[in-house]
Amino acid sequence: MDDRKASESGEWLRHEAEEWTQEGLIRAEQARLILARYGLEGLETPRSLKRALFVQILTVLGAALAGVGVLLMVGANWEALPRVARIALILAASGGSYAGGWFLWRERGDHPAVGQALILLGSILWGAGIFLIGQMYQGGGAGDPNGERMALLYWFIGTLPLGILLKSPVQTALSIALGSIWWIWMWADSAGHYGYGQSVFVTIFALGLAVFAKGRLISGWEPLEALGPVCEKFGIAGCTLGAYALSFDLYWSHATGSWWKHPLLLLPVGAAIVFGAWVGWRDREDRGSAAAAWAAAILAALTLVAAWAVSTGAIDAGVTLRVVFNVLLLAMSIGLIWLGWESASPGFVNWGVAVFFIQLVTRYLDLFARLMPTGLAFLGAGALLIVGGLALERQRKQLLRSMEAKA
Amino acid sequence: MNAGKWFAAIVLLQMAFLVGEAAMRQRGLDTGRPLVLRVHPVDPRSLFSGQYMALGFDAEDIDAAHLPVSASLKAGSTAYVSFRPDTPYARVASVESSPSRFSGVVPLRATVRWRDGKRLRVDFGMDRYYIPEARQAEVNRLWWNGRQRDVSALVKVDSKGRGVIEHILVDGKPLPY
């Protein structure tokens, strides 16, 4: 093949890989690996790309560890240093980490993984600084207007623009985690006033739907496209956690009160309905995306109806909603497996299988632990885990193989 | 503005926020009016901020039947508890919905937790005093002997009524940390 032909086929492959990615046949990193296989990713080879991914995971873990270390140091309350020195130290550490990260990632560009990790570390150090200042001036309690809850909000607001500006999934993951903790904390405090802790899980479920729908929404918008999958993963984690907790009867007992119209619940429900309907309409040609978006919108609406019905005592929450959320959890695991298959995303398949399996074991323990001696129940659960695990693993592999064949 | 400039601007804003937060609290300590309030300490731990004494102030529990308390105050509203400095502890003079203009009293901002006919429960938002990890045993002893010891907090109150704890006093002497 002469140079001209090689160049033309290279261009063809590039174009095809881009289209395959857009159509959801392969993921972006798989496209890069294919292009690297034919020497179309600069000097990268499939091996070097895989190593780069490993380095990125390692450095992000390193940044997280260093950040936790700083938080623990803050926790140790270093009395030996004067206040000004402590502030100067945290400013220098955070600012230095940001500057180093930017230099390695964007200025020199030769260590993007380490650079991203350093910027993440800078954000963690900045957050630690907020808590350090609270600690130095004896603040932080629940009654303090600038207490820990507010510190989390400041941390979230301060780091969110960086995630958007840099289009960095890890930075965005940090912001979403902080925002979610703050939201749930706010709700937990309100729920405490009502005395109905179970509403916390309804809010987690609704928040998960809203974040998932938002992820779907920005996935189709070029400037923020890279951040969509992070939101989707967080959203799904929130939904499944909320639905799993609500599949137990204990959270639905005495579930009355006016909490269904609290803004902290109405806002995520409204966002999930609007974003879900919007994406459902926008992606009507894409069966998988449209179905997932409409599902988020409809579930959000049903969540509000369920919360209203429980609040007003219109239905017997203890039995009815436990059954509803068990069915819902099952539907979610099947839906996730289907979505994973449709969009060539093994992550969704794995998550769906895991949710199904956990639900199966939980309900087994719920039901049979009451009917048989404890030892026997655990023996049965162990056998169920092994046999079920084998069967599900086989099913999962079959699914993944068929996804590969489909691609 | 390119991405580099936006990045620098966000980072600078973050740093300015930290400096501003510290400066605001330091100003309260430097210029605030002092009050000594009786406290009862316990020692929990925060995931984010480390070991601290959780403090309850005797003055947070107010006898509304025998003190002038604004009728508009209800759960969740901001209250200003006016203290008259005294020995050994400052005394509550009145509770209002806005800072008292009378000289000789120090209005301390609080949040109303609940109210019934005779009692008013407020929160000064100063329920923590951080302690070094190595001093935990000492604080535990303080808690166990708390009822026999005279434990109080020296609080500085700024012009807007915000309080900051400067020291914890045990039998009138400040803790060395």
Brief rundown of the structure:
The complex is a heterodimer of chains A (407) and B (177). Chain A has 407 residues and is mainly alpha-helical.
Main sheet summary of chain B: 7 strands, antiparallel
Radius of gyration of chain A: 24 Å
Q: Output the number of helix runs of chain A.
A: 14
Shape summary of chain B? globular
Strand content of chain A: under 5%
Q: Count all strands of chain B and give the number.
A: 12
Query: Whole-number radius of gyration of chain B?
Result: 19 Å
Helix/sheet category of chain B: alpha+beta
Shape type of chain A: globular
Poorly predicted runs of chain A are: none
Report mean pLDDT of chain A, rounded to a whole number. 81
State the distance separating the first and last CA atoms of chain B. Answer: 47 Å
Task: Describe what you observe in this structure.
The complex is a heterodimer of chains A (407) and B (177). With 407 residues, chain A is an all-alpha fold. Chain A contains 14 helices and no strands. Chain A has helices at residues 3-22, 28-37, 46-76, 83-107, 112-136, 148-166, 169-194, 199-219, 228-246, 263-282, 287-312, 317-342, 346-371, 374-406. The two termini of chain A are 28 Å apart. Helices cover 21% and strands 40% of the residues of chain B. Chain B has helices at 3-31, 136-144; strands at 33-42, 45-46, 50-57, 61-63, 78-84, 91-96, 106-115, 119-123, 128-130, 151-157, 163-170, 173-174. In chain B, the strands form two sheets. In chain B, strands 1, 2, 3, 9, 10, 11 and 12 form a seven-stranded antiparallel sheet that branches. In chain B, a hairpin with a 6-residue loop joins β5 (78-84) and β6 (91-96). Chain B is globular and about 65 Å long. The mean pLDDT of chain B is 84. Classes of the chains: A mainly alpha (407), B alpha+beta (177). The interface between A and B is large, with 45 and 42 residues.
